[in-house]
Write a structure and sequence with these properties.
GO terms for molecular function: catalytic activity; iron-sulfur cluster binding. The chain has 272 residues and is α/β, with parallel strands linked by helices. The chain contains 9 helices and 11 strands.
Length: 272
Amino acid sequence: LIKAAKKFEWVYVPSLYEFEYDSEKTKGIKALIPNLRLQFKNAVVRDFENTPVPLRPVVPFTQAVHERISVEIMRGCPGRCYFCQASFCRRPVRRRSVEKITEIAKACYYSTGFDTISLLSLSTADYPELEELTAKLNEYFRDKHVGLSMPSLRVDRQLKLLPGLVTSVRKGGLTIAVEAASERLREIINKPLKDEDLFAAVEAAYRAGWQRLKLYFIVGLAGETEEDIKSVVELSFQLAKLRKQIDGKTGQINVTISWLVPKPHTPFGWLA
């Protein structure tokens, strides 16, 4: 461990250091042996395009909750939401090409037989070639009845296009990370999303054939009021009723609410 700590700038061995504190704050750090660095850097995979991935994932004997092909299309996030540790600690943003993603999806499909492909990243809607990627997957998997799954998505201009991009592939649920029910609170957490954009994205999803949506919210945010919490219920009902304009039915909305867990290295890290 000592040799590795001296050689690599991303190796930190806690037992080789001693911290000095002033009240509740860190005053300094001291190495317990000579020639150890006091500053460190993240270990980052630079060539994300060619990083090896499992092309023959394990196929369970019984049905699993997430029985699907998972392909990581992008690592890191261009957003800077104040509660999210990954957006501050997982930079720079790195992407796989459309060709590489399609190649991985095909190989995993033929080795597993799974009928759902999940495009994973911290913010899939921010993948620059998303339209080209979904078009290629649609073309290849259209007659194989393979569905396309997206992780929780930020609502922006690209998300409004997303429902129409995957109409040819069997769709699962669509998950949208709203985080806060009011525009004021979304501004505070540095997620400036307008209600009109959210409504437009959900309406586009209904028109493209989605019947079930999942919404993510966080409570306990800085600047939150009781009215903000009540707005979660009101906003969810409004989004469910949007479907009536399409086919006369009420949309199926699943709401997931989580407490804010302050993370180190974020602007909200000291809210606990």
